[in-house]
Design a protein that fits this description.
The protein is of the alpha/beta class. The chain has 2 domains: 284 residues, Aldehyde Dehydrogenase, Chain A, domain 1, CATH 3.40.605; 180 residues, Aldehyde Dehydrogenase, Chain A, domain 2, CATH 3.40.309.10. 37% of the residues lie in helices and 23% in strands. The chain is built from 15 helices and 22 strands. A 7-stranded mixed beta sheet has the order 16-17-18-15-14-19-20, with helices on both faces. Strands 11-10-9-12-13-21 form a 6-stranded mixed beta sheet, sandwiched between helices. Strands 7-8-22 form a 3-stranded antiparallel beta sheet. α5 links the parallel β9 and β10. The termini are far apart. The chain binds adenosine-5'-diphosphate (ADP). The site of adenosine-5'-diphosphate has 17 residues, from α7 and α8. GO terms for molecular function: aldehyde dehydrogenase (NAD+) activity. InterPro entries: Ald_DH/histidinol_DH, Ald_DH_C, Ald_DH_CS_CYS, Ald_DH_CS_GLU, Ald_DH_N, Aldehyde_DH_dom. This is Aldehyde dehydrogenase. It catalyses: an aldehyde + NAD(+) + H2O = a carboxylate + NADH + 2 H(+). Keywords: Oxidoreductase.
Length: 497
Amino acid sequence: MSLTVQLETPTGGKYEQPIGLFINNEWVKGVDGKTFETTNPATEEVITSVHEATEKDVDIAVAAARKAFEGEWRRVTPEDRGKLLVKLGDLFDKNADLLASVESLDNGKAISMAKVDVALCAGVLRYYGGWADKIEGKTLDLNPDTFAYIRKEPVGVCGQIIPWNFPLLMWAWKIGPAIATGNVVVIKTAEQTPLSALVAANLTKEAGFPPGVINVISGFGKIAGAALSSHMDVDKIAFTGSTVVGRTILKAAAGSNLKKVTLELGGKSPNIVFDDADIDNAISWVNFGIFFNHGQCCCAGSRIYVQEGIYDKFVQRFKERAQKNVVGDPFAKDTFQGPQVSKVQFDRIMNYIKEGKDAGATVEIGGNRKGDKGYFIEPTIFSNVTENMKIVQEEIFGPVCSISKFKTKEEVIKIGNNTTYGLAAAVHTKDLNTAIEVSNALRAGTVWVNAYNVLHHQMPFGGFKESGIGRELGEAALENYTQTKSVCIRLGDALFG
Ligand code: ADP
């Protein structure tokens, strides 16, 4: 199989899709000669096959990254690192139509949303470009005879493992802070969505990154992902994905070289609406909170709690709003919700819906597959749920939510926190005291007030409890990619003669 194929997308036109492994700024085949298919979830048809990285390719990519880290990359000034990131961000803007089209084709997300993702990628890459020459240490005067300084040094070779729900955005979130701080990366995409990152890899070369600094490989979690996370020459793993795999990665790090680990994992986030909320505003954010990206968001507001005074009215109007979400062809201009990413995810979600029905919850709307081709699922709202039901406790990662009634602030804080997760939450109220009191009491890494899913590259994102370790975005992400070195200089005479 060659290293590129000609593909066509409904809005991006014909283009050359790279399908190799991007190592050392070169396109190569996997050592074992393996390939795997990627499917268009809207049609269930195979788009193309890509070359698969196995353990041997991970070794080659890590060696290339190590060589770059010890060699040419070290001599690139922070200012120039910043310029490279800014240039890469600009290339995302320049190639926005193509990148968004490839993203929609491979992942199934609505093209309008894919375009937003690409703009966010450009923003985050430029943001971290701005940070590159602002990574500063400190000087310390310990005593008249001793002077010390603290350096913030890069961690080294970073393995980055990303999921399929935001293939490009997670790529940019990971690469931005790693590169700004002087690291090198081997990034493995999710097996469901390899294509857009390979197009982006070409842009890194065009931007002028030296060979080996950014390596992009396609492959399976249990093979290439496991090889990266247990590799003895990988200094750090940054992972976004399920909590189950997060635990595996932590174990692999513990069982190998104790590499640093940051994890951005699952969630079961509460979205809380008080009686005094602006109901139209709340409904629109609650709808966006769960159905955006087809519910395939780790921070999805999947548990909705509405105060008793407006509960009945809210349910009725939320149903009407959700039924207006346009579900269908990702490339149609008005589509809000496309297909789920894969048959596996589709089946998982349909199983959860069945669980909910069997457990006695009421299906207010949805609950079915939509159409007979593609992995489309109707927006689904369950009411009459109890806190111990699986659909209320487990992450569904689809367009499915539960809605229930609460009486008091104290009660909703307690049930809001009644989960092993702690990624995000939201509060809808016009009362400032309620907003602040509840936001402070919720054990979550992000709390939105009168909003949902508002993410920004300046604002740290990550989880409390089992939703993760470390923060992405903002200045906070730089911490994950630097290590502190103390240099202590003795100025006076020898102490011990
Ligand atoms: P999902 O269940 O939503 O598909 P995963 O957590 O399985 O999410 O996948 C997220 C990323 O983790 C993907 O890139 C996948 O290949 C990778 N992955 C899956 N299993 C492992 C593993 N055992 N070790 C390392 N990476 C893995």
